[in-house]
Design brief:
By secondary structure, the protein is mainly α. The protein has a domain at 23-28 and 64-179. 57% of the residues lie in helices and 0% in strands. It has eight helices and no strands. Helix 1 (8-36) packs across helix 6 (141-154), helix 4 crosses helix 5 and helix 5 (112-129) runs antiparallel to helix 6. It is globular and about 55 Å long. The N and C termini lie far apart (39 Å). The relative contact order is 0.14. The mean pLDDT is 92.
Length: 180
């Protein structure tokens, strides 16, 4: 009996799974680093590289997870708009909720439609807050992540290593297809 060979298309689904889980972990890590100050982007001294876990820059210590970026890293034609958003609790809450929601959705492979839409909006805002990219006249990682999100959505029906097949059978998802 001849062995069944896996087609290139079938193998690509595993690459999409690795991309989905990796990108999900990226968002989850950003959430937990900003929440607890784990010492990667948050609570690491820029000059000395000394890490102070749980420092005063952590969200649970009352700091704003968006303030540093919005006040100091924004540039370009929309910089003033983004700088005016700095320090608002609703901006911090929306940003952190977005990081957590995207991280969970992508890692588990559930809620992909809404994750792709909201994730693309978040990434587009982040890209436009720092125009123009330093290493390219237009393209940076935020726009590449949007393309990856779209690819994940378009390949989602054959998703590997995720909970999609279970998720789409849930009553709430059947009633609200945006949650698929």
């Amino acid at each position: 009996m001849p062995s069944k060979k896996t087609s290139t298309a079938d193998k690509s689904l595993y690459a999409w799974a690795v991309l989905r889980i990796s990108l999900g972990f990226t968002f989850l890590w950003a959430f937990f680093d900003k929440l607890y100050g784990l010492g990667f982007s948050t609570c690491r001294d820029a000059k000395t590289q000394v890490i102070t876990h749980g420092c005063k820059a952590a969200w649970i210590k009352g700091a704003s997870p968006t303030k540093g970026f919005l006040e100091h890293a924004t540039k370009g034609p929309f910089a003033h708009v983004f700088q005016n958003l700095s320090g608002h609790v609703w901006v911090d809450t929306l940003f952190m909720t977005g990081l957590l929601g995207l991280g969970i959705a992508l890692t588990l492979g559930i809620g992909m439609r809404i994750a792709v839409v909201t994730g693309s909006i978040l990434l587009l805002f982040m890209w436009s807050a720092a125009l123009w990219p330093a290493t390219n006249p237009f393209l940076d990682d935020h726009l590449i992540y949007i393309v990856i999100l779209l690819g994940l959505l378009w390949s989602n029906k054959q998703q590997k290593w995720g909970l999609r097949n279970w998720w789409v059978k849930q009553d709430v998802v059947k009633r609200l297809p945006i949650l698929e």
